[in-house]
Design brief:
Radius of gyration of chain A: 21 Å
Distance between the termini of chain A: 32 Å
Number of helices of chain A: 10
CATH class of the largest domain in chain A: Alpha Beta
Number of strands of chain A: 13
CATH architecture of the largest domain in chain A: 3-Layer(aba) Sandwich
Structural class of chain A: alpha/beta
Oligomer: homodimer
Largest interface: A-B, 71 and 71 residues
Chain lengths: 362, 362
């Protein structure tokens, strides 16, 4: 079948060039006569790939030299536990800003491990239609960290700029908008992201830890759940998810070839503007439930006049080659996920489809 | 470059047919117009793949219906922690049989979590050249489980038959010999295996749990480290490592097409017999340091008259297309890893190479 327009929220579209490169050398990685899945993680060839991937990520994301970049397994969900396990110590407390389903899960794990405060939320009857404003936050100046979910895939909100937490380091779950825009990384103590939205396939999680965080880290932890294990062994304490790392490598190279982070941000802004413009330009038909300044540039969530039309929109979209337009099962409606690998040309086609659908069904 | 003879200990050779199938549909999984890496783990297409993989594994491995099969991340190393976290309760003790580096790591994690006994070992000055005999074990009849490492990749030993632990359930780390032979699965409470030796690529771990084990499982655990989470959600609580699962699926299909577990075992026995036969038939030149009844049929470890010849053997082997013959850095010597995907024809070529090398250098 011909390639479709893939708007899944994650696992999501990958750069076609990265997929083609992987396909080409699937039986013979870099002239080794083996697949990248078949080579030892202790081999020179894998070591090069591994270090190249870490360097590329640091370079592209603009992380300072005082960050250690880890490539781990378990997804953001395991980081929900590892962050407090490593940093939330006896007698201390951690702040969490609650902006949706993922923050909620992060808070649940932190509460099992230690004192956890909700330092702000806009939740109303289980719905989050905005990001808290600075003045509405109740921050603890002595918190060991303040956790934020940078982008909320389900509700379609995003921190357009991060809160000022003074000397308290931010910890960011950036699974769904990592490498989509520039921001001040130096204010973060930890940044983590499952790869399967903006970085590559599922199965690998990037964790960046600012070195000073480790000075206050907990000790006596289980080996694999201790960041120190992975820092000391450059993420090669145990067998890494080699193929997922390889695909991240190819995806990062694609970002670099396209002009790096600034080029990505420019195109992401353009893509978001196109879709939100179409929604706001057809207010009789489309409605975005998210406050304008909290809107996600990664997951555009909107509603149609009624659920029957939403069903038809998803169905007609599918028939026209637009896959994954259905909103998350917990909120319904429509969701168009526009990560780095969703091209501007494809988004133009979506917008065209939206306009035509509104005209025919409005 | 032409495909080489891959004898890495893991990540290791994959069935060529599985790699070719993956290559063929890398841009278009089962007619979806997307790569298997790009489809949502909540899609019908992924769900089918996921359940198919679990069913195939149960069918091929001969597990009873009273086992739940999970597909997790983190490798066997995370299971070293998860097994005692879930089953080693307050006031109870677990037995571990120490047969090498991997058992040692498993014991280290269990000791952090609770009472742990070493119920037997053959360690002498850090070397393990055999598997303990039943009469040398000091088993605790009240242990919550007895942990064994079924095959020891570094030292080249393997439990040819598992110890009798009475009513105490066995827990087996079978990362390096899963699906290589038939055994009585009903005596095991938990079987776990990183995929990257006999099942597929790195990045996914198969865990089979006998249902009655969960009746005594610990509660209040961190969500992602709780087996119950994954049992209740059929391993789809969070995003699974989709591509690794897909490759396991293709590898399992290959096993089935080749005649299933009995055919694998027959060929594995033949392969092991060929190499050990060559070693024992050239005793002036080759020497296997492992007691005959403890020899691994997966990792054949042997020595040459001196280290210079070993270096030359590895180097000449590489030039002749045999990759990964170097023993583990902690023990030196030669290691030939012959997992399911290492074909009989390739092993015949290795044996030919060994014989020629002995003749030319003996």
């Amino acid at each position: 079948m011909a390639r479709v327009h893939n708007y899944f929220a994650g696992p999501a579209a990958l750069p076609l060039e990265a997929l083609k490169a992987a396909q080409e050398e699937l039986l013979d990685f870099r002239g080794t006569g083996m697949s990248v899945m078949e080579i030892s993680h202790r081999s020179k060839e894998f070591d090069e790939l591994h270090n190249e991937t870490i360097s590329l990520f640091k370079e592209l994301s603009g992380l300072g030299d005082n960050f250690k970049v880890l490539l781990l397994q378990g997804g953001a969900s395991l980081q929900f536990a590892m962050v407090p396990m490593n940093f939330l110590s006896e007698g201390k407390s951690a702040d969490y800003i609650l902006t949706g389903a993922w923050s909620k899960k992060a808070i649940k794990e932190a509460k099992i491990l230690g004192n956890t405060r909700v330092a702000g939320t806009t939740e109303k009857d289980g719905i989050f239609s905005s990001i808290p404003k600075q003045e509405d936050l109740d921050l603890d100046n002595n918190a060991v960290y303040c956790h934020v979910t940078s982008n909320n895939t389900i509700f379609g909100t995003q921190w357009r700029s991060f809160p000022d937490t003074g000397s308290v380091p931010l910890v960011g779950d950036m699974s769904s908008d990592i490498l989509s825009r520039r921001f001040d990384t130096s204010r973060f103590g930890v940044i983590y992201a499952g790869a399967q939205k903006n970085l590559g396939p599922s199965g690998v999680t990037i964790v960046a830890i600012r070195e000073d965080m480790m000075e206050k880290a907990n000790e006596g932890l289980l080996t694999l759940l201790n960041y120190k294990t992975h820092i000391d062994k450059n993420s090669l304490f145990n067998t890494p998810p080699c193929f997922a790392i390889y695909m991240v490598n190819l995806s990062l190279k694609w970002v670099k070839e396209r002009g790096g982070l600034d080029a990505m941000e420019k195109e992401n802004n353009e893509k978001a503007k196109l879709i939100y413009g179409t929604i706001d330009g057809n207010k009789d038909f489309f409605r975005c439930p998210i406050e304008p300044e909290s809107r996600s540039f990664m997951n555009v969530v909107f509603r149609l006049p009624n659920e029957d039309l939403e069903k038809k929109f998803i169905e007609d979209g599918k028939n026209a080659g637009f896959i994954g337009l259905k909103g998350h099962r917990s909120v319904g409606g429509i969701r168009v996920s526009i990560y780095n690998a969703n091209t501007l040309d494809s988004v133009k086609d979506v917008v065209e489809f939206m306009k035509n659908f509104a005209t025919s069904n409005g």
